[in-house]
Amino acid sequence: MKVVILAGGLGTRLSEATSVVPKPMVEVGGKPILWHIMKIYSHYGFNEFVICCGYKQYVIKEYFANYFRHNCDMTVDLSDNSVEVLDNHSENWKVTMIDTGLDTLTGGRIKRVEKYIGHNAFLLTYGDGVGDVDIPATIEAHRKAGKYLTMTTYQPSGKLGVVDMDDDGTVIDFLEKPKAGGSWINAGFFVCEPEVFGFLGGDNEMFEREPMQRLLALRQMNAYRHTGFWKPMDTLRDNKELNDMWNSGVAPWKVW
Q: Which residues does the UniProt record annotate as the domain Nucleotidyl transferase (predicted)?
């Protein structure tokens, strides 16, 4: 089963970093967050990736085309321009990188890679979020549901603590950052049947809007509830928090 990764957006809320590299190439622990996402899937045996590129796509292509140079020690003999790799930190990955357009929205990006997926079920995620998601469990839930699309959902904590008190002001309980009102949000990590392509329109459609509404109308969407760790990297603060976790040796998404 191939893994499609959406990696073409502008990443405007990370503009300090994305003026140099695309958002999926912003580093966590010295590696692009895209690498971390791929390592999650690879841990479960999914090693074939289709990356939907767009903004600064050449950075992603250069990284994987020169993966040894980025990740291995080497000796370069300038007399004959030969390169000897001294250690092998390669991955058992096949990475297809497709230009899906600079301004194409998520639905259009997925539609543009249809020919690389064919008539097969596939996995889909965003290039900016990590979690200790049990990928085989999402696939099992998807197969049991028998729907065209399964979305991994997550219940985030509230940003502020909640105080529970009685009428005279006596505090009964205090919850620091409780779950946000019981709401579940889209955490990505989708499982898709090839029929999903038939619900996609043109380049100007967000996958999360019209295509999902079409699937909802036919009751063809299933939710997998993830109760572990998940965090998107939307801002520089998020990037710092992820780096702090990694550097402290407590990175819950590091399942490999």
A: 2-206
